[in-house]
Amino acid sequence: MPAPSSSTVKSPLPSDYRAAARTSSRRNTLNRVIRRETIIGWLFVLPALLIYAVFVLFPFLLTILYSFFRWNGVGPATWIGLNNYLTVFQVPDLLGTIFNAFWLVVWFSFIPVGLGLVVASVIHRVATGRLGALARTVLFLPQVIPLVAAGIIWGWLLGLPGLVNQILSAVGLGAITRAWLGDFDWALPAVGLIGIWVLLGFCTVLLLTGMTKVNPALYESARIDGAGWFREFVGITVPLLRYEIGVCLTVTVIAALAAFDIVYVSTAGGPGNSTAVPGIQIYILAFTQREVGLASALAVLLMLLVVLIIIPIQRLGRAESTS
Amino acid sequence: MKRKISLIISTIAMLGVLLMSASASAAQAPTAAATGSAPTCGTDPVKLKASFETGFDLPFKLSEEFTKEYPNVTWDISQDQFANLINSTPRLLSGDNPPDLLRLPTMVSFVKDGLLKNLDDYATAFGWDKWPVPQLNQNRVASDGTRGSGSLYALGLNYSLTGIFYNKKLAAQIGMTQPPKTLDEFESLLAKAKSAGLQPIMEWGSAKSGMGLAFPLQALMASVGSTQPINDWIFQKKGATIDTPDNLKAAQHLQQWITNGYFPKDINAIEYTDAADRFTKGEGVFTFNGDWQNAGYDTGMPGNVGFFVMPPAQADGSPAAMSAPLTFGIAAKAKNADCAAFFLNWVASNPAARQIDVTVGGSNPGGPADATMPSVTAGSITNDTLAAGPVIGKAGTSMDFIANSTSSIFAQGWTPELQKMVGGKQDAAGLLKAVQAEYVRELSQ
Which of A176, B157, B216, B252 could form a disulfide bond with B428, CB atoms 3.0-4.6 angstroms apart? Predict the structure, then answer.
């Protein structure tokens, strides 16, 4: 191994300086470019950020602020510290709504995501072309129909003289007919059914989009190996759709825990408090009862609860999708 | 997402209110009334800003007629559903440009916040204080926040009356030749209807509409007991309670009616409009409702509907009824307060306005004792409801609505607890205790 030439060893400095100078000037240009791009990037983001700050961040901070006051929305506000939070935990009706919200997670989240996976994979496998487009449209329609109109229609369908009971009677199940939305045991599942109707299309379309992303060669080779629909579903579809499933779960779990619109247009929390959810309570407290502080406290607690539940779901989706 | 957006918007609105309320001044006394002569709308162009309730034609028709008579007055009317008025009115009133005239969904909290004009001077100037006493009492608020006495803060466009409507054909079928004179007679009719296979009472009860069983319950309260404690409770008199022995008896009657199957079994899911519709189509011998539904019954079952007020439990007792004014007030910061007050006075005293009041609204127009009663179409149920008014007036047994005691006693108290009673999850004693607890909780806020 030849010894290193002395010149290179002895005088590394000038060339190094030059190189360093070159690098630093390049870095400076680079920095400048990056800085300019950063500024341009921020400029692009700015309008959206501004709107986000004004309509989301600022009200969010205000809600936290309100939660420490007793305030009727108009008159003078009194600082009462954490008393509103204590009240939430002392009034059993308010805590009961949170329990109902967890029940709704099953109906709004688990069933639509599970069913969505099955439906999407069926559409993906058999119903391509026009039939697939039709199925997608029909399933997605509830996302387009105004929920208030849907609530009224579901009220008729599930009423005592409604279509659901007519069908049940026609097939000999007249004994179990009831006013589904007015029944203490069945109102929450009935609201859940409306939730499935609304959210199934969203999940199906999202999952279907994910499936088209999967390399068809995988399915092909699985089929050559003799895999049936179920093997394909468990072995390829579900593992490769983890990220999409994560998104579906996130959106639908939030829809369940923070539910307001579906419940409000179908039962408004009744009968009794059997379908009352935190969203409805916050609305009634803030606007009917005009206890803005207490409503804000419940809203803050609801938000914390949602964040606590969503973060693990997000972690799960992210970790699995990178693996 | 929609919820989030609406929450955000409302929060922004609240901030606006917070900022504006800082500059809001307390209620000012009317100026024109101080000069001695009654205020008018003058001759210069006036644009009255008004907030009305959607779905009720009466104030709109009255405003049209008013402009015909006083062409210098034009209107800028906004309208919303009653449930939304409860939410939006505080912000309307505390804003920079509050309505001159507005339908009041609730009153005491607005008075406490200094958002409503004190109408005492107008009452003197126009002579409202000489009207038959009960008319104004429900619109008075005392300095301690109790209703029923004190300064005047609103006026009724008319005075509705509730009672029992019945299907004449079905009533004849169960042998009812004349309205029952006592509670016992009424209950035996209900039993007959049940055993004849008819639906004895049609009523609504969904949380969206608000529980309609509050109507028969209050009627029963007034039938077995006196109306004074009920009004004291509604007016938030100190120490008032709904949990009295008489009211317990009334609630037990109601629970019995539920157990006997006198109400539709799907009542917890029936909306107000559906109940009215099903009654006009012949489902239900009786229904507890108010005279605001008169036009609907006249159209849906012409000539086949009758009306009586709830009979007393004792044969020598007086019938009682819930009668509430259609309350309109003037914002404390209203720009045209004098003209709005003049309009309210015109509604009560002008013959054309009173005629519209009865024809369109179906209720008693109230006003001066010597004012003539407008004519009613022959055969209209309005004849019967109007005739019942003086009977109740003479007996002094009119009540406000138990759902009006606090702003959310209906949504948080009566509706869920009565629904539970229908579902067999609440009894008479528990109902009154739960509602009283909610009442105390709300008043302590």
Answer: B252
